[in-house]
Amino acid sequence: QKSSIVLEWVNFKSGTSELLPDAVKVLDKVAATLTKHAGLKIEVAGYTDAMGDPKRNLELSMARAQAVVKHLTAGGITASRLTAIGFGKENPIADNASAAGRSKNRRVELHPVTQN
């Protein structure tokens, strides 16, 4: 069973991978938490809503996951502990038919990687 943490308030400038100021604050707290759990490896998963070109959404979701990894490594987290993956519109957590649902689907999740 894979647990995931949706990083609420980690948002980006529309159509880009540029982190908004509130996102930076949240990611600074995430970095502090990860520092306390030095053995934990994390998959940083980017997602988009279903609007627009699927190929572009896949690229954008990857760029956003990479932006989160870049910020966390700048905050002192070893890059080898983090893996960025873009999923595009896959695995929606809300209905893409509404603006509120699409907003929830545009997200970054942290997936702890099981260590053997």
Can you give a write-up of this model?
By secondary structure, the chain is α+β, with helices and mostly antiparallel strands. Helix content is about 40%, strand content about 15%. α2 (about 55-75) links the parallel β2 and β3. The radius of gyration is 14 Å and the shape is globular. The mean pLDDT is about 95.
Distance between the termini: 14 Å
Rg (C-alpha, Å): 14 Å
Give the strand order of the largest sheet, numbering strands 1, 2, ... along the chain.
1-4-2-3
How many strand segments? 4
Low-confidence regions: none
Provide tags for this entry.
116 residues; alpha+beta; four-stranded mixed β-sheet; 38% helix
Give a concise summary.
The protein is of the alpha+beta class. It contains 3 helices and 4 strands. Strands 1-4-2-3 form a 4-stranded mixed β-sheet.
How are the secondary structure elements laid out?
Layout: E1 5-6, H1 21-36, E2 41-46, H2 54-74, E3 82-86, H3 99-105, E4 108-113
Parallel strand pairs: 2-3
Antiparallel strand pairs: 1-4, 2-4
Helix pairs in contact: 1-2
